4-hydroxy-tetrahydrodipicolinate synthase
Amino acid sequence: MDFGRVITAMVTPFDEQLQVNWDQVEPLINYLIEEQQSDSLVICGTTGEAPTLTDDEKLKLIELSVRYTRGRCKIIAGTGSNDTAHTIHFSQKVEKLGVDGILIVAPYYNRPSQEGLFQHFKAVAESVQTAVILYNVPGRTGVNLDAETTVRLSHISNIVATKDCANTDQLTRIVAEAAPGFLVYSGDDSSALPALAVGCQGIISVASHVIGKEMQSMIKYYLEGNVQQAAELHRKLHPVFTGIFRVPSPAPIKHALALKGIQTGGVRLPLVRVSEQEGQFIQSLFV
């Protein structure tokens, strides 16, 4: 399965009442594919505010996304939770919608052992036929999916990739030791270029909502051997990579989209919109 180099973790558009704005889903997808050159989209991930979406909302969003992309890019659905049984049940429902893969976050809050993590991901993978992408984000889950555990999981046939937000040392070890063909994506925008340098496939990104074309150019430069140009573009983009996480995501990227005329609404509690001062800072990133 080729998910490409730049995968956008898509925001969920809301209306003024913070209900899903179904009319904005197709325009947003078209914008991300056509203008920002996303190779794949993650629907109902962290950036899509999955924790505050109902299962019914998620299923409809995923079904519409598969329909609206019309094969122009891959659709990866976030189906993970901290309950293995629910993750299996929901992943099986989502698989029937025709997605290209599912993204399974490491169980949060319960903080399982490495063996517990292995058994969780193994059970989910064995319950579906579709491609499974692991998602390691210690800053949100409270647990790190260690490199050794990821390597073990890479030998399960339909576990094909990982999105890992850990440090470059961990990414390096996974790339070096995982099963042949297993893909490693950085989950940290500012690490996109360093991750390529140690052999990662690409980035699962938030910033690509607004600088996706530039990120594709950076990666193209690097892969063509134009390392200096890639590094220069990385340095130029770095303030955006870091600035959009100055306050809890996805409020900043939704504000950045609005500055570009792409209306995706606010965020659901317990998240809040950016303040006026924060909004001015985000605007300054694009001047």
